[in-house]
Design brief:
Keywords: DNA-binding, Transcription, Transcription regulation. The protein is mainly alpha-helical and 198 residues long. The chain is built from ten helices and no strands. It is 66% helix and 0% strand. The protein is elongated and about 65 Å long.
C-alpha cells in the first residue's frame, strides 16, 4: 500500500525561517501570515507540523538557544570566573551583531513587548532568563581557589549583572549600535569585575 502524501517542505528550513522571523519582529510583532510567508507553508500546514504560534515560538527559541544564541554554554566551558564573564559578554556581542543574522536577541526582542493575553509567553521567557542567571551563578560558585571570585563576592548578583548587561547589549545591537562599540562596552564591564588582591 503506498505511503501518505510526501511532505513538500523541509522542516529544518521552515523552523529556521520561523526563528529568523521571530528574531526580527519579536513574538508579539509576528503575525501568522508573516510566518507562513517566511516558511513557505500554508497556515493549516504550519499548525499541523508545528502547532499554534506559541508552540512554534518555543520551538524557534530552542533552535536559537542551540545555535546562534548558544553563548552561555560557551562561557560555562571557561576555566576561571573572570574568563567566564569575559567570554559571556564578548560571545553575546558577536551573536547579537551577526553578519548573517538579525541584530539583537530573539528572546530579548520578544520579551520587550508581550500582550497580557500572551502571559504564558512572558512566563516562559522570564523562566529562561532566570534559569540563565541561576546557571551562571552556580558556575561562578564552582570555581576553586585562585580561579574563582574574591571573598565577599555575591555570585548571584554578579550573574544577574552579566545577564542584564548582555540584554542591554542586545537592545543596543537591535537599534543599530556597531559591534566595535559593543565590544568596548563589554571591555568596560570587565574593568568592574571583582578580582582578588595580588
Amino acid at each position: 500500500m503506498p505511503g501518505g502524501r510526501p511532505r513538500s517542505y523541509d522542516p529544518e528550513a521552515a523552523l529556521n525561517a520561523a526563528m529568523l522571523t521571530f528574531w526580527t519582529q519579536g513574538y508579539e510583532g509576528t503575525a501568522m501570515s508573516d510566518l507562513t510567508t517566511a516558511m513557505g507553508m500554508s497556515a493549516p500546514s504550519v499548525y499541523a507540523a508545528f502547532g499554534d504560534k506559541e508552540t512554534l515560538f518555543r520551538k524557534a527559541v530552542e533552535r536559537y538557544m542551540a545555535g546562534p544564541g548558544d553563548y552561555l554554554r560557551v562561557a560555562l566551558d571557561q576555566r576561571t570566573a573572570e574568563a567566564l564573564a569575559r567570554t559571556f559578554l564578548h560571545s553575546a556581542v558577536e551573536a547579537v551583531t551577526g553578519d548573517d543574522t538579525p541584530h539583537g536577541c530573539l528572546i530579548v526582542q520578544s520579551a520587550l513587548a508581550v500582550n497580557p493575553r500572551a502571559a504564558s509567553v512572558q512566563e516562559y521567557l522570564t523562566g529562561l532568563r532566570e534559569d540563565g542567571v541561576q546557571i551562571l551563578a552556580d558556575r561562578l560558585r564552582s570555581f576553586p581557589g585562585a580561579d574563582g571570585l574574591p571573598p565577599g563576592s555575591d555570585p548571584s548578583s554578579l550573574a544577574r549583572l552579566l545577564v542584564t548587561v548582555v540584554q542591554g547589549l542586545a537592545v543596543q545591537a537591535a537599534s543599530g549600535t556597531e559591534r566595535d562599540a559593543l565590544r568596548t562596552v563589554a571591555d568596560q564591564m570587565m574593568l568592574c569585575w571583582p578580582r582578588k588582591a595580588e
